[in-house]
Write a structure and sequence with these properties.
This protein has 332 residues and is α/β, with parallel strands linked by helices. The protein contains ten helices and 15 strands. Strands 1-8-2-3-7-4-6-5-9-10-11 form an eleven-stranded mixed β-sheet, sandwiched between helices.
Length: 332
């Protein structure tokens, strides 16, 4: 059993020592819990892929606590990237920037860019500072499964392979970070996440094209291969089959669960209903998304029906996760 440790200077030192030895530690961030390892140590990176059963072609996000690391890990940083760091860091925004040779190719899956972010969770920042090195930290769950938003989710998913789990309480944002990259100096949304794309457009004063399946009015383009974490079509899936709720197909299954949103009365016929936000608050819905899916998944239901939320703001990230979870190919 992997121990769950409350945040304290002593536990922080223990976790930092384990990371410097090349071991893995689960840590809380404002988005989801991450499976952290030394981002500059190929052996530690290999352990992340092994423990998560993550394919090597799916790049990792590198976490830092000090902006000085940007210059050590990135060849150049554009004025746009600097403006976004100034506005959103620390926070749930990941930037894909041209990498230096200091970043192992394993961390980037051979890409010329490194996905970099500064988390805002105080436990994550304290551990990064104590460790003194950048940490690669994808979500602390088996690849393709539900992301963990509580220490207990991590402990249920892994019984070995991790030195410890630092408990930072429930994740406040609850969905993974937004990932932004550049192509021909133009910003591109690579993954919808905890920062609404509209907020980024306000800072940059321009519309942003998208390679992510986020819907709405933003341009969508085909994605030939992953250029950022979380882009595979099947991802974030519970063990219980999940389908997108269709109001034209009434359900009378007592062993079906419903993931609902808003103050509208949910349809009858479902054995259990989880409402992400009775007050129609998308921030609340995002924070509750994975915890609600974990609860439904633990009930042994025959299926879960999930209602999409409005395709605005954080709703794009929520719907992105639900669409990927509902993808027919769940073998990834």
């Amino acid at each position: 059993m992997v121990p769950i440790l409350p945040p304290s200077p002593e536990n922080n030192r223990r976790a930092a020592e384990a990371l410097r030895r090349g071991e893995l530690v689960a840590l809380p961030t404002e988005t989801v819990y991450g499976l952290a390892g030394d981002a500059l140590n190929p052996a530690a990176l290999s352990r992340i892929f092994e423990v998560k059963q993550r394919p090597f072609f799916d790049p990792l996000i590198v976490h830092i606590a000090d902006r000085a690391w940007v210059g050590k890990l990135c060849v150049r940083v554009s004025d746009q990237a600097q403006a976004l760091m100034d506005h959103f860091w620390p926070g749930p925004l990941t930037l894909a920037l041209p990498k230096t040779d200091r970043v192992p190719d394993l961390a980037t899956s051979g890409l010329s860019t490194v996905a970099l972010r500064m988390p805002s969770h105080p436990v994550a920042l304290a551990l990064l500072r104590e460790t003194g090195i950048p940490l690669a930290a994808p979500s602390a769950n088996p690849f393709g499964g539900l992301s963990p938003t509580a220490a207990e989710h991590v402990a249920a998913a892994f019984t070995e392979g991790i030195d410890c789990i630092l408990d930072g309480g429930p994740c406040a944002v609850g969905v993974e970070s937004t990932v932004l990259g550049w192509e021909n100096d133009e910003p591109i949304l690579l993954r919808a996440g905890g920062i609404p794309v509209e907020d980024i457009e306000t800072v940059l004063k321009k519309k942003i094209a998208s390679t992510a399946t986020v819907g709405g009015a933003h341009e969508e383009r085909p994605l030939p291969s992953p250029t950022a974490p979380g882009q595979l079509p099947s991802h974030y899936a519970p063990r219980t089959p999940l389908i997108l709720w269709d109001p034209e197909s009434p359900v009378m299954l007592s062993r079906a669960g419903l993931l609902w949103f808003g103050d509208q009365k949910p349809p009858e016929g479902f054995g259990v209903v989880e409402n992400l936000s009775p007050g129609s608050d998308l921030r609340e819905a995002a924070a509750h998304l994975f915890a609600a899916l974990h609860r439904l998944d633990a009930l042994g239901l025959d299926r879960i029906d999930a209602r999409l939320v409005p395709e605005i703001g954080l709703g794009r990230a929520i719907n992105d996760r639900l669409r990927r979870a509902a993808h027919l190919d769940t073998s990834a």
